[in-house]
Specification:
Elements: H1 33-39, H2 52-68, H3 74-93, H4 106-112, H5 123-133, H6 151-168, H7 175-189, H8 195-198, H9 201-207, H10 210-214, H11 218-228, H12 238-241, H13 270-282, H14 287-293, H15 300-314, H16 319-326, H17 332-340, H18 344-350, H19 362-378, H20 405-421
Helix pairs in contact: 2-3, 2-6, 6-11, 7-9, 13-15
Length: about 425
């Protein structure tokens, strides 16, 4: 990035030294490259987006793994798992070992081209398939005419796969996923005059009915996937899609120059803080940091030692400047807690009394669960937050609308005690 223009040279501008010497240069780092490479000396990691085929491979593998131990899905769960593994094996079996992308992983691919190994997938093999095999190209022919690899069909496969995963993992199908499938069904319904669509009209209307969604099952979703995936080609024609023309005017912005003392160091010392935050996240398994995260008692001596480690990691030469920059308005324990959050189990233990459904109603338990979510994410909380969003979304008066005065005070004291522990003893 820096070349000949940054070289200094005597008498560059004339015969008289030092008046004609080149003694300085300016670098206009509008995109903050110095700061970036100071934090990432090896550059960025490959962040190429995964292909649709790779995502589908990974989701099918995950769904098959989940079904392996999910007895609740019964015989159909086992049948679907067998079919998913057949699809995955077919894809790997069709990989050309002479392909220049496949060739470096030839030994791994050959292993999974055997059908038998798919019956005994363990954690190690699962990881190998995800990390090495899933992204490789294939020349496999579909195992069935209904499984052709068309772009729109593959996107539909991905939608239905995420819904199946949501059912098995019991996270629930989202409104967004449901709306997407309903819109597709509605668009197909109006294409009933197309013979291929008309053949499945009864199922399309079933998908649009409330009965389908009241007790939707894995089998319902898989049947929907197989029946409708190749029909999406009839939804949008070139005329319906049309052409979109844009004509945007660029707006130029200008940054004022700043004196550059050392490459990568900005005057406001933001980079130093980023270094410290990166150090904390990379060393979350450090015993002291773990105790802070879990809300366990910690000594001031431990906190002082941790602060010294952060000081060294920051690269700041002066301890006073370090404290003024990194955590000027809070002790180091609280600073760490806000970065790493509070362990969820520790938060639940602190508020366990309020999670008893024999003593508290559903709104009260939801309110306390929201406190736990907040502390897990942010590490600390100002008790005044209990009278603000998101708590007022549960009751418009916040904590005061759900708990009596004594309970409010106990909740406040618990929150303050969780914070106090991070100060050290």
């Amino acid at each position: 990035m820096l070349g000949r223009g940054t070289r200094l040279k005597p008498k560059l501008f004339g015969p008289n030294s030092p008046v004609d010497d080149k003694t300085e240069f300016k670098v206009f780092d509008v995109c903050q490259n110095f700061e970036y490479f100071e934090m990432n000396p090896d550059g960025s990691k490959d962040s190429a987006a995964r292909s649709l085929s790779q995502v589908i491979f990974e989701n099918r593998l995950q769904l098959a793994e989940n079904l392996k131990s999910d007895e609740a899905q019964g015989d159909y769960g086992a049948e679907l798992r067998e079919y998913l593994l057949t699809l995955l094996h077919n894809r790997v079996a069709g990989m050309n070992l002479d392909n220049f992308i496949v060739r470096p992983n030839r030994q791994v691919v050959e292993t999974y081209q055997s059908a038998d190994i798919w019956r005994t997938l363990d954690t190690e093999r699962h990881g190998e398939l995800l990390n090495t095999v899933s992204s490789l190209p294939t020349e496999a022919e579909p195992i069935d005419v209904l499984e052709q690899d068309e772009e729109l069909a593959l996107r539909f496969d991905q939608l239905l796969l995420t819904m199946q995963l949501a059912l098995v993992e019991r996270t629930g199908i989202t409104d967004t996923q449901q709306d997407k499938l309903l819109r597709i069904a509605e668009q197909l319904q109006v294409k009933a005059s197309v013979p291929a669509v008309g053949e499945h009209l009864e199922w399309i209307e079933y998908v649009l009915s409330a009965n389908f969604w009241e007790g939707v099952t894995l089998e319902d979703l898989e049947t929907t996937r197989k029946r409708l995936r190749l029909l999406l080609q009839f939804i949008k024609t070139d005329e319906e899609v049309g052409v979109v023309y844009t004509n945007f005017d660029d707006t130029a912005t200008y940054n004022e120059g700043n004196e550059l003392h050392h490459f990568g160091y900005s005057d406001d010392l933001k980079l130093y803080r980023k270094r410290v935050e990166a150090y904390v996240r990379e060393h979350e398994n450090d015993l002291t940091i773990q105790r802070i995260k879990r809300g366990q008692p910690i000594t001031k001596l431990d906190l002082e030692r941790l602060d010294e480690q952060l000081f060294e990691a920051s690269g700041i030469q002066d301890m006073t400047a370090y404290q003024d920059t990194i955590h000027p308005d809070k002790p180091v324990g609280l600073f760490i807690r806000e970065l790493v959050g509070l362990d969820r189990n520790a938060a639940k233990a602190a508020f366990s009394t309020y999670l008893d459904d024999t003593k508290f109603n559903s709104d009260q338990i939801q309110f306390v669960t929201t406190i736990i979510d907040w502390l897990t994410e942010n590490g600390t909380m100002n008790p005044a937050q209990l009278a603000k969003a998101p708590f007022t979304d549960i009751h418009f008066e916040g904590v005061f609308g759900l708990f009596d005065q004594s309970a409010v005070m106990r909740l406040r004291d618990t929150i303050k005690e969780i914070e106090r522990v991070a100060f050290g003893e």
